[in-house]
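ok trying again, last paste got cut off:
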Amino acid sequence: MNAVGPLRLRIGTRGSVLARWQAEWVKARLTAAYPDADISLTVIRTTGDKILDAPLSQVGGKGLFVKEIEEALLAGTVDLAVHSMKDVPTLLPDYLHLAAITRREDPSDALVSRDRIPLAALPNGATIGTSSLRRQAQLLAFRPDLRIAGLRGNLDTRLKKLRNGDLDGIVLAAAGLKRLGWGGEITEVISPDVCLPAIGQGALGIECRRDDATVNDAVRPLDDADTRACVTAERALLERLEGGCQVPIAGLAALTGDRLSLKGLVAGVRGERVIRDELAGPRGEASAIGRTLAERLLARGGSALLRELYAEKG
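nice, full thing came through this time. structure:
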């Protein structure tokens, strides 16, 4: 497929254990498809990896985990990037796109508790570690007595803080734990009725330059049509709500045959108000379903709530 020599692919990735696992997973599938290709990883430290002493909501949100990698793509120093879709902003640079969205792992949030006690049975006033406003809002809506402690860092770092610290439990993405073979650490996979996941959670996105036909052709077989439809609906919801890590917004789509259903949520940071709704329609209308659900959430009080949240952020 490369007239001037063997296929060469340089994969840009963050340096965390999970990010490297994800990049290696993509590399293994590309190597299986193109045995003669020269495929390597380039580790790029992002702003989000450098700032660990403040919540993402205070330092710029999810784009912090992709900005430097996208700059490397645009500069031509890497050929593709592997991202957790929950970290990818809805607006991409003009010359980049998501050439593939891989088959989704479990999109749920998971509780890991020190004594393997499920969420509903944790003692009154238990302390839960998370720096996600989305998780905080929903956990407090379910259990207003809980105490929320800020928690940043890689998965292994967070698990160590649970074992060594004063936390009763932490909430993480089930997908990351399962990918790293740490599924046994999970005390409880939290129902989406209690904690609706982040947009795109559990899916990987492969970002490439739009005009690089060779790379686009190479990664296209990794695209999962069902996952792309679901993530497209979720990201359309998020884009219309103009949300990021600074406000508690959640969404999860699922397919039953050719019918796509989408649940969405906007909440106050302390869980004092939670606005939920859901909508279904043909999978071919994924973007429209996301936008329409967003409009319904806004009309039901989400617009005023978001204005208040952004005003508080200054």
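cool. The chain has a mean pLDDT of 91. The first strand starts at residue 8 and ends at 13.
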